[in-house]
Amino acid sequence: MEQGYRNSQSTTVLSASWAMTVEETIKQLQVFRQEGLDRREVQRRLKKYGPNRLRETEKKSIIQIFINQLKSLIVILLGVAAVLSFVFNEWVNGIAISGVIVVNALIGFFMELKAIRSMKALQQMERVSAKVRRSGKVIEIPARQLVPGDIAVLEGGDIISADMRLVFAAKIQADESVLTGESFPIGKQVEPVDETAVLGDRTNMLFKGTAITRGSAEAVVIATGMNTELGRITDLVQGAKEETTPLEKQLDSLGRKLLWVTLLLIAIIAVSGIARGREVFIMIETAIALAVAAIPEGLPIVATLALARGMLRMARHNAMVNQLAAVETLGGVSVICTDKTGTLTENKMTVTDLYLSNERIQIGAVDKNGNAIFTINDKAIDPTQNERLMKALEIGVLCNNASLEKNRSSASSGVGDPLEIALLIAARKASIDYQKLNQQHPEEYEDAFDSDTKRMATFNRVDGKYRVAVKGALETILESATRVSTGEGFESLDEKWKSYWLQKNAELAEQGYRVLAIATKEADSIETNPYEDITFLGLVCMEDPARDDVQEAIKACRSAGVQIVMITGDHPKTAASIASSIGLTEPGRDNVIVGKDIKPYEKMTPEDHQLYRNTSIFARVSPKQKLDLIAVHQAAGDIVAMTGDGVNDAPALKKADIGVAMGLRGTQVAREAADMVLKDDAFSTIIIAVEQGRIIFENIRKFIIYLLSCNISEIMVVFAASIVDAPLPILPLQILFLNLVTDVFPALALGAGGGNPGLMKKPPRPSSEPILSKRGWYSIFGYGALITFSVLLAFGLSYGILGMEQRQAVTVSFLTLALAQLWHVFNMRTKGTKLFKNEVVENPYIWAALGLCILLLLAVVYVPLLSEVLKLTNPGLNGWILIVVASLIPCLIGQICKLFTRK
């Protein structure tokens, strides 16, 4: 009984059934078509192959989402510092640091609460029923109870619930766009096809998750659940590794460096202190001060809030980001791999041209008033005054079974075959009311579309006679036509005319158009052969048009050094045509690599890698091949974004560094697998998101340099004092106050900056580029040394020259450090910008942060409770003069260096 089946881990239960005849398939599955399976056999197969459902993916719990916020190495360092503080009874330090960890985790937790649950949408697909023939009767069952060998009975509008081999087909078409990316419905038939045929060319198969748009059929189930093509995609989604974002990697790298710096400094201080016989308690206090100073406690909060603000800013531009770290990753994108259907195109069949003898009539989009522009040779015409045009459009309405919504919109949707809906929309653009026309000329008889003859005709009553409307494939219409309509009247359809139309049809097909021939005649009776002695009117050209904003978006990508690669399951000619029309490729240079010619990743040579990286169009590509092509670019060091809207795009969306799904037309599966969802489906929104990502990265780099230079200055101050056996100029809790308050607010203001307008004129940064370059580290230590010098100068003058007692001198050094760090924010302006006109000076948040911090500093000095906790006192007039003068030194020297650098 089970001969011909593979095991349950197979990708299909019956091997290459599309290459078998109907009889061979039925025999292999051991089922009688007219009887179907009986109840006992169904139970046996259900036990063997399991229910027809997809495997659930493990969902992230709320606790897991929260724990993920604590995995950063910098957060772990903070945890160690908090534990040390508690161990040595520094309770205030420990509680403050613990508070930082909790606040940071909560911010990230609430921003990422909607975690990825890709399989939820896939499982919803299975909550449908199916009609099957069992024990000789047609019954309706839940789709999950389908088993291999079931005979399914199908009709237009049905959702396919398993992979099936057609055994009978009557004028059937299927919409497979969510699985293959094919723009148009696919005509189906029962004859075998080549065993090597790719998914989109298996015209005798129906696949789980697709839908029948017209016709009726019977099919035998050959695969269920995870053995279906959709099941394969499910496996790829579940198996695709989610890439760690560059920012996460770089912050972890920074955390490791800080860890080693902290341990090294503590070891040096401990050894030197013990060698000089210093008290153990003093050494512990110094070690804690160094640990607190070395770790930028505010960095996780500032980075998280900067990313969260970037997420909200992108949301205002219709880009919804699911993961915080993905916001910054967008700025580093160097390659955008994009699907075609629904991403670069409208995913809607549209009549764009009519060829009537020697005239080409173009139909534009509908404007906000519901009007469309019709042109001949780029000159606008009134369609109602062109008799041949109106007749052709009327034929498209009469020979039609679809219906439209009532609104006048280019986005009109309807019920029926997408091709017929497109014909109705084209007629509506010419002010033809299809309902009124059908009332005036009621249909008396229809010769339905046949997938073998590829034609259809209707008889519509006109003044006691019949108007025959015919549409179909050009070759079949030309066989029956005897005359052709021209601008001067009618001519005999001789071989010259036939050759002309066949050549025109080939040219249009080469350009990626879907071409339909239309014809008409008058008849006295519905018994007349509708295809005999007809008058050929012309060709109707349809395409899935490119989105209006795509061409400009691609130009912007080129300017920003971002490569665009089209990866689609659609036909190569269609892909090449769209690529040329949107400026992705130049005419004549639109080389396309077809999926069957793409090697598996593990078998690719360096030459293959180079070829694939230099190619802009890939067609007839499977979901697995999309993963391989993304891996090729990632192996070359590129940061890859993948856009898509279909089920077939979900694995690649998850594999890419940034997955971008369409929010309007995209499937729920694609949206859940992506890092970012476009609410407006506009490709141009990606460019806005990339620009925001670049701004955020630059801002993150600035505030990291700012925070670390402040921390380095604190380390140097403590280290210098411990080396010379002097009192600590600044205490651990004071350092913690600076790190959590006066450092954080200016850093947050830097993170909220608008960036430089020239960012999108530069190429993306290499993925290997660290968040801090050598130049960045030089800046950190240079600025840190300047601040350290000013603090030690103020402490030495107040303690040694002015004769202040230790607490007052520590207050002077604390305030000098605090103000020096505040003024230091102006050193963060971009190299080459003007002194009083730059992104820092013009950032209102900077001034607000400075004002708030100065008020807080005055409070901790002059409010008794706060001053007692931080061990501060009034520095006096001389102290304030010294504080202000000393604190300005790093800023003044920094600005002088900026001026010389600019020159």
Quick overview:
Helix 4 packs antiparallel against helix 5 and helix 10 (280-294) runs parallel beside helix 25.
Provide the descriptors you would attach to this structure in a database record.
eleven-stranded mixed β-sheet; alpha+beta; disordered N terminus; elongated; 903 residues; Calcium-transporting ATPase, cytoplasmic transduction domain A; eight-stranded mixed β-sheet; Rossmann fold; Calcium-transporting ATPase, transmembrane domain; 28 strands; 31 helices; 18% strand
Protein model, in words:
The protein has 903 residues and is α+β, with helices and mostly antiparallel strands. The chain folds into four domains: 17-56 and 120-235, Calcium-transporting ATPase, cytoplasmic transduction domain A (Distorted Sandwich), CATH 2.70.150.10; 267-317 and 695-754 and 772-902, Calcium-transporting ATPase, transmembrane domain (Up-down Bundle); 325-345 and 547-681, Rossmann fold, CATH 3.40.50.1000; 350-543, Calcium-transporting ATPase, cytoplasmic domain N (3-Layer(aba) Sandwich). 47% of the residues lie in helices and 18% in strands. The protein contains 31 helices and 28 strands. Strands 10, 11, 12, 13, 16, 17, 18, 19, 20, 21 and 22 form an eleven-stranded mixed sheet that branches. It has an eight-stranded mixed sheet with strand order 8-28-27-26-9-23-25-24, sandwiched between helices. A hairpin with a 2-residue loop joins strand 19 (481-486) and strand 20 (489-492). Helix 5 (91-111) packs parallel to helix 11 and helix 28 packs parallel to helix 31. The longest helix is centred in the C-terminal third of the chain and has 41 residues, at 683-723. The radius of gyration is 36 Å and the shape is elongated. The model is unreliable at 1-12 and 114-126 (pLDDT under 50).
